[in-house]
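Exercise 3.2. Students should predict the tertiary structure of the chain below and write it as structure tokens, then compare their answer with the key that follows.

Predict this chain's 3D structure.
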Amino acid sequence: MPWEKTTLEVELLGHISSDSTAIIGREKPARKVKESKKPRKKGRPAKGEQREQVVEKRIDRQVGQSVAEAICELPSCCDRGTKKNAKGYPTSWNG
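Answer key:
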């Protein structure tokens, strides 16, 4: 059709398809080493008492990092994931 050649000749058309299908693999999740935490005292600290600082979360640290630093910090080993589906039941997967 002649109108397509005149209207779309300078435009770049692109299409991205993404698939959320699970890829089944045989890799098992890596075992996590849990650190024993000392129980924290409840309530407000006493006058002059110093409490240990809470460890900053990864997502909060990434705000001030460059892209390369943030990517290097991401885990690369297999892990277990869980989320709740639309009906509220947990769904788990390895990956």
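Discussion points: The CA atoms of residues 27 and 78 lie 7 Å apart. The longest strand covers residues 80-84.
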